[in-house]
Design goal:
The structure holds two protein chains of two kinds.
Chain A: E1 5-12, H1 24-38, E2 48-52, H2 65-68, E3 79-82, H3 88-101, E4 107-115, H4 121-124, H5 138-154, H6 160-172, H7 187-191, E5 195-198, E6 200-201, E7 210-219, H8 220-223, E8 231-240, H9 254-267, H10 272-275, E9 278-280, H11 288-295, H12 304-309, H13 333-349, E10 362-369, E11 374-381
Parallel strand pairs in A: 2-3, 2-4, 9-10
Antiparallel strand pairs in A: 1-7, 1-8, 4-7, 5-6, 8-11, 10-11
Chain B: H1 3-9, H2 28-38, E1 43-47, E2 54-55, E3 74-76, E4 79-88, E5 101-108, E6 114-119, E7 131-136, E8 149-154, H3 162-165
The chains are: A alpha/beta, B alpha+beta.
């Protein structure tokens, strides 16, 4: 029987285009210190450290966990680096949780980051392979044909993605940590922004951010004694599948469907749309909101766009998504998944300030990565299971 | 003080240190056969012994079933169908193509996997289901490389029906 585990501290940096005032070590230290302060802990109280970031080729620093070990208090403690492409933030949270759930450690710190001002992600994602013509320009180049596939099969109106982009940027105005603060964001502004990877427009894509996110998790016997609010981890789930195989449904991979079904089963959830109060979903390109509403079994196949269209995913909708502004408003890639997990935890702790959903008790955190081939999710609650 | 002088005397915030990586790629049996064939202008795929699906290009084993493909190869047509596409208007350091260009996921006739390539066509003409054919380099320039195919171009054939390629999107 797994040890019940809770998130007891969360720390985030401000997300912005360039943090020239700190090194990578300084960036993660900032998030980690804030998480410790929130958890009313010191470095001494941490049993193990888990660190995650996206591909090393981004910053060109191989195995950065080696030189970052001291900055996150890893000296003479167990330290583990996680990597699952864009979903790595989520996987980092899950690995940290499993260290406590398994009974190995009592209290664990996890940190995920990306310093994109020192990197070139599009270059790193456009490497030339022996068998293929170098024509896929970064993540957008890979995902744009899949978005077109979703539009074709669902019959979604062409402006669905524009609506998501506007909604998430409006939500970001409630979150002072969000990178993009676009006070004048409008449907026309997104619609008139240049097509980068047709059908994906400039303002339907995520920014490139510097930032880090950290969390402290601990076992029930410690967390129960706290007077402050904690987020109980009801379930975690990870799934992967090969990038390329014949007949692979790249728009709606089997791995996401399996991930969702098993996550809800573990959490005892039968009607996710009714039982969850809100969700932080990994949406780097606007169309992935409706796609993952289907991929997370929140709604029926080919119906995800209706949730956007009918305002269900809006801040005041029946299933708010990305209250923090989401990946579309802040994207330090390696941290983005952990931010989703942390923002879900903030909601159920009732500590999400201006982007708090009133009375949120149960929330979903979600990340995906690679060629839609890695999925990491968790469900957290203000109540014990 | 000019901006340049100020920059020179100010603190060093970021140093640019370019890296490059050169790989020695061991093609192996399956890829070697594929590359020797393409040097002759032939496109060879391989059939998965479990479900019979034809992989192109073949890496010699099935990523779904974890089995090696036998020695038999399947010769494919250089004609195919566009299953999905994007028009790219973003420059990328590693990509030499002039902007904008059309990137296409092509299902070659006889293959059960897609090939990602580029299409030479009017931007407004490209669509899902469009029939296309490879345009090759002059024969005397052929080598053991997929670069023997320069790009795809539309051909005068009726569009493929959505049902015939939808599972490859």
């Amino acid at each position: 029987m797994a040890v019940l585990t809770a998130v007891v501290g969360i720390g985030q940096t401000k997300y912005e285009a360039k943090r020239l005032d700190v090194s990578m070590a300084g960036l993660i230290r900032e998030a980690a210190e804030r998480a410790l302060a929130d958890a009313e802990c010191t470095w001494r109280d941490i049993d193990a450290v888990i660190i995650g970031k996206a591909p090393d080729l981004f910053e060109g620093v191989m195995m950065p966990e080696l030189f970052l070990n001291d900055a996150i208090g890893g000296a003479y403690k167990p330290m583990l680096r996680v990597h699952t492409a864009g979903s790595v933030g989520g996987s980092t949270g899950i690995v940290a949780a499993s260290m406590v759930q398994s009974g190995i450690h009592d209290r664990v710190l996890c940190v995920a980051y990306e310093k994109q001002s020192e990197s070139n992600a599009t270059w790193a994602l456009s490497i030339s392979l022996p068998f293929s013509l170098a024509s896929v320009a970064g993540a957008g180049g890979y995902f744009a044909p899949l978005v077109r596939g979703y539009m074709r099969r669902s019959g979604a109106p062409d402006d669905t993605g524009i609506r998501v982009a506007v909604k998430d940027r409006q939500n970001a105005l409630r979150n002072p940590l969000a990178h993009l603060q676009m006070k004048d964001i409008s449907f026309e502004m997104v619609a008139n922004s240049p097509m980068l990877w047709d059908p994906i427009r400039h303002l339907e894509t995520c920014p490139s951010s510097d930032g880090a996110c950290a969390m402290v998790m601990e076992k029930e016997s410690l967390a129960s004694r706290r007077s402050g609010k904690v987020a109980w981890i009801h379930a975690t789930e990870m799934r992967s599948e090969p990038t390329m195989f014949s007949g692979r449904d790249q728009v709606m991979p089997q791995a996401t469907l399996d991930n969702a079904a098993n996550l809800y089963k573990k959490a005892g959830i039968t009607k996710p749309r009714e039982e969850l109060d809100c969700a932080e979903i990994y949406v780097p390109f606007s169309w992935f909101e409706p796609m993952w509403m289907e991929g997370m079994l929140i709604t029926e196949r080919n119906q995800g766009w209706k949730m956007t269209y009918e305002g269900a995913t809006a801040f005041d909708g029946d299933f708010p998504v990305n209250m923090s502004g989401g990946v579309l408003s802040s994207n330090p890639i390696g941290a983005s998944g952990l931010i989703r997990f942390a923002e879900a935890a903030r909601q159920v702790r009732g500590l999400a300030d201006q982007h708090q959903i009133d009375g949120a008790k149960k929330a979903l955190g979600h990340a995906y990565g690679g060629g839609s081939q890695y999925f990491s999710t968790w469900i957290v609650s203000s109540q014990k299971p | 003080m000019s901006a340049k002088e100020e920059q020179a005397s100010g603190p060093v915030m970021v140093l640019s240190c370019p890296i490059s990586l050169d790989y020695a790629y061991s093609a192996g049996q399956s890829a070697s056969r594929f590359l020797r064939a393409i040097a002759e202008g032939k496109l060879l795929g391989q059939r998965c012994p479990v479900d019979g699906r034809v992989y192109f290009p073949s890496r010699g084993s099935c990523p779904m079933h974890g089995v090696t493909f036998g020695d038999d190869a399947v010769e494919l047509s250089d004609k195919g169908t566009i299953v999905t596409f994007s028009i790219v208007r973003v420059p990328s350091q590693n990509i030499a193509l002039p902007l904008p260009y059309i990137t296409v996921n092509v299902l070659l006739d006889g293959a059960d996997t897609i090939l990602i390539h580029v299409l030479d066509a009017k931007l407004e003409d490209v669509h899902m289901g469009m029939r296309v054919q490879a345009v090759w380099k002059p024969r005397e320039e052929w080598t053991t490389s997929t670069a023997n195919i320069l790009y795809f171009r539309p051909i005068d054939e009726p569009d493929a029906k959505y049902e015939t390629y939808k599972e490859h999107i």
